[in-house]
């Protein structure tokens, strides 16, 4: 590979990328939706959308040409360029032709490469549900089935004209030297996203959890990555098989949370937040524009991830690959970004995933992030120059010599200078979130640091997507097992499916005129490669699958193994598959939730800043009094920006309870159908605002609780009734039938399998299910060493007196009864707590005596312990009472 072949043709790649994003513009016409039975009361301006699309696209793209000669080793045409309209846009849906896996016309190479990408993405994404969205107005849900917005007719014809006018102006420059492939491309993508993002990608239900933008962006991203790979390694179209292409994920991983932990002051935290934003934007520009390798598909506190071609991989490095040595120029450019932006402070690990075809599996990167941080490439790092007046190592960056102290903190000159400009920026916008910790202190001089963290691994690896249905079977006549038996019979007898009637009862996307055994090898096995299902399938048939060659040893399978495969086939036909667009939608749904918390929940925590109040709360900056605007400001501080997995912030402690209540309510609105299988953990650390900020932030990282195995947070119990949060559109479409399926050991419903080998059962409030708990934990840092108490094993605290923490959200409701019971009985409470502690110590080896005494004591005080969720008077149960006291009295000081 020669990286110059990529840079010389990057403009061609970007032109093709920009054009392909408009392929789905037909669905922005109101007449398209009316033709499919929606918006009957609305008037479409354009009834013949095909001609309108032609007028939009042909006039622009007929003048744009792309050099494709460098894509092929066997290029034989007299001209090097092809016309984007004639050979790419026009009739692009007919790309399959009679030979769907071959490039039969060199002039149609772009159409074939895009078609293969879009077809694969769409096929995996959509499946073939038979239901239509019910109602005259189509609507969008989040990735977990909850209503988000109704498609607005105002976003159709007239609005599209405004957008397309803007796009046309930009595209008219596309074939000229005036086009800026950074700023103009960014504008075009933004316009198309605004045009597409409020529309479902399809009229079928439940495909309304994927927007038109999701579908278009991911199809284009796959196409762009593939195109870049082919420019790097030109193909011979005579023997190139489109069904064999794969993609990889390029991960640039660095620990953003650890950067927040370096923050000794809010200024340092803000500096690192800004630095990571700058780094990610520079990386995005480098990969997407400068080299046009692919597009960003994921970003969180572990780094930034891009979809790229499989041929970028070099030597193996554990579970991953290094970037190919032929692409060292790109690797060095990545490292240069970190070198210059961080002043040589930290560097990333640069790795690629194993190539896959059916799913872009990010999970392995996320699971191995901590290990990968240790693989950071420090080849650009320079040894720090010795300084004559050095007084030690900088306590902020911990990588340079300190030359001065700031509030008795040894700091290097770079870290000292990074604080400059923070105040000036804040003075220009004083109504935003505060930058002063003193303004967050409550009447007890305390602040609450909060971390919100989703457990997303089982979603991003595709496992729990198995619990979401893409379509339903008619169960009025048959049970799930009957369908399994049908598939079993065909697989066992190896019947041909020449008429395809049987398999088409389940899916329109299964290849026609093929034996079911062949379909399983080429379709279902392909989807499992590179995912957790690969090992699951291997184990299920005792390693009788050759994944490299896509072959199953059918003649050696036992009856049990045939039955296992039959269940897998049915599951793959029914479930929502982990397509690139769906994975993107999953993390957009969770990140969007944190954005809602930030804007709607914390955004409502406001108070008026006065000149006098500012001077009292921030005395070190009393000189700013004359510049203070007496107006409302947002009374919170972000430690990190929201990511798909977590968010951390600081609020006044007195605002903590109502904030938790609002977060829980918002969770149930957004994730009601997956409550119990999308765990959200809330961790709270409270400290005096004058204590060093980094102590609380380090404790906050501990209380974030990284779960290694979901079994640590699993339980078998009934689910909370959530029908009060159902939207009428969700109810009309029976959303719960598609989304509310849970793990169970009930074999009657074992029609579908998770890699954990547990079945999936329909939602039934009378039964117990295996669910994964939403939890809350807290800690009051009365001393700096208290953060060492925050350590988990098997999902619970290891300190004996705190071993009940974290509490489930259901248990947390019982905390509130404690507050009601003792709101005006502080003396009684103090006496009880002192008594419990003393008797625990006196009778630590005589639990029976302790139980009898506590039971008698509380009965005498006429207090029913069961109302607090305390089932008996054992040591472990009574520590719940002590936790409630610790929360309301010691931490919040409300009792």
Mean pLDDT: 87
Shape: globular
Kindly report the spatial arrangement of strands forming the biggest sheet. Answer: 18-19-13-20-25-28
Q: How many strands in all?
A: 28
Whole-number radius of gyration?
A: 30 Å
- Our measurement of the CA-to-CA distance between the termini, rounded to an integer number of angstroms, reads 70 Å
Helix content: 40-55%
The fraction of residues assigned to DSSP E strands is 5-15%
Given the helix and strand composition, which structural class is it? alpha+beta
Spans with pLDDT under 50 lasting ≥5 residues? Answer: 497-501
Count of helices?
32
Major beta sheet, specifics?
6 strands, mixed
What does this structure look like?
The protein is globular, with a radius of gyration of 30 Å. Mean pLDDT is 87; it is low at 497-501. The chain is an alpha+beta fold. Strand 6 and strand 7 form a beta hairpin. Helix 2 packs antiparallel against helix 9. The protein has a six-stranded mixed β-sheet, sandwiched between helices. A four-stranded antiparallel β-sheet has the order 6-7-5-10, sandwiched between helices. Strands 1-2 form a two-stranded antiparallel ribbon. It has 32 helices and 28 strands. It starts with a helix and ends with a helix.
Short description:
The chain is of the alpha+beta class.
Descriptors:
single chain; 895 residues; alpha+beta; 4-stranded antiparallel beta sheet; 41% helix
